[in-house]
Specification:
Chain lengths: 185, 227
């Protein structure tokens, strides 16, 4: 009796394993699809990266790795402002910016993805606006007129962009630090 | 009264309070810092609707649920009058708003809301005030004043973003709360609690500078950006 039931049980185990593998593969594909189209921006923020995870975690962010699969190291995070701060907005709507930061909380840079700000073209689209965030710590103030140059008189747009960059960076780094603290022996 | 006609129908203010508001007592405590100091400290922020040529509407915002700021902004007597007469709840947050500018007709209190993280807080109640009501030394000449209340849990170590949703676009302003060690949640606007007649006694702590407070408080490192 016992011997008779071993066959179907084995089949069931194999089916479960196959389903699990398919689910893992599909989950990975789904995660990767969450960053589809962003690769050029991600590579500009972390040229040394060997792999970018899909968007994962709360708040959603992309993990950045170097090294090969045997010796992979987490070197940073990239967060989209609209994922992390979905209710924030500028004058005309959300300002989507990718914020790259290393694990010590230093910004690697930002990449403007989309916005509808009327004066965005001569404010947050200017390279000099983004350049001032490179190397900034998340502990800094990020205040327009103080440590951030307004670049132009489009103050609402510049202030809103600066605000969402600071908030997104801090939330992601805070989550990472909280996780590190939790895992400490 | 002011030109907040659109919200008149929303006012839930008992008659005795209206009468007391009309008396408009103007006495602030001697500890109150002047307007400019509060501006510098960001206890007062502005939301400004403008085009390149002119300022259309400028709204000044102060968090008056904090007793020290509430007393200094509204005056001790008005602050204490409003407090016991109106519903007290820890999760009500009241802001004083003063407005100025030629485009005052654009101003609608229901267009104000605030966010913090994933939470949104809409105005649940409002009171128009006679102008001038606020008693801060050196404040600009205003053409409208009001109190607005929002409801919900707020993390006082983090700023809120206050939005004015205008016809052309949204004007945001970031508000960092003053020192959280003082009283909070004592000024609330809403329907009165029946039978609640006893007055509430308040102490008036000094208004600490936000910059000064941060160094003294035990705030996690990532909040250091407000210093």
């Amino acid at each position: 009796m016992t011997q008779k039931s071993a066959g179907p049980r084995l089949v069931r185990s194999w089916v479960a394993i196959v389903i699990l593998l398919v689910a893992i593969v599909r989950l990975d594909a789904w995660l990767q699809s969450s960053i589809h189209g962003l690769e050029p921006h991600l590579n500009q923020l972390f040229p040394e990266a060997s792999r970018f995870s899909g968007k994962t975690g709360v708040p959603a962010h992309i993990k950045v790795y170097t090294g090969d699969s045997d010796d992979e190291q987490l070197i940073g995070f990239i967060a989209s402002t609209v994922d992390v701060e979905p209710l924030e907005r500028g004058y005309e709507g959300p300002i989507e910016i990718l914020v790259g930061m290393d694990t010590a909380g230093t910004l690697r840079g930002i990449r403007l993805i989309s916005h509808r700000e009327p004066y965005g073209y001569f404010s947050i689209e200017l390279p000099e606006f983004g350049a001032q965030f490179v190397g900034k710590s998340v502990l800094e103030r990020f205040r327009v007129g103080e440590d951030i140059d307004g670049v132009t008189t489009a103050t609402i747009t510049v202030s809103s962009a600066t605000r969402v960059i600071r908030k997104a960076a801090r939330r992601v780094v805070r989550e990472y630090l909280a996780g590190t603290e939790k895992n400490r022996p | 009264m002011t030109k907040f006609a659109s919200v008149a129908s929303r006012l839930i203010l008992p008659l005795p309070v209206c009468a007391l508001l009309a008396l408009n007592p103007h006495t602030a405590t001697a500890q109150c810092p002047p307007w400019e100091e509060l501006r510098k400290d960001e206890s007062v922020i502005d939301l400004t609707i403008s085009d390149p040529n002119m300022v259309g509407l400028r709204m000044w915002v102060v968090y008056v649920s904090l007793a020290s700021l509430g007393r200094c902004t509204l005056g001790t007597e008005l602050f204490e009058t409003v407090t016991p007469e109106l519903t007290a709840s820890e999760n009500h947050h009241v802001f004083w708003i003063g407005a100025e500018g030629p485009a005052l007709h654009l101003f609608r209190l229901e267009r104000i809301y605030m966010i913090q993280g994933d939470r949104r807080y809409d105005v649940i109640n409002s009171i128009e005030l006679d102008t001038p009501t606020a008693v801060l030394d050196g404040m600009p000449r205003l053409t409208a004043e009001a109190l607005v209340a929002v409801e919900g849990l707020v993390d006082f170590t983090e700023p809120v973003t206050i939005f004015y949703e205008g016809e052309m676009g949204t004007v945001p302003g970031e508000y960092w709360f003053p020192d959280t060690s003082s009283e909070r949640g004592v000024v609330n606007i809403g329907p009165p609690i029946l039978g609640k007649t006893s007055s509430v006694s308040h102490t008036t702590p000094d208004i600490n500078s936000k910059r000064g407070c941060v160094g003294e408080a035990n705030i996690p490192p990532l909040d250091g950006g407000k210093v």
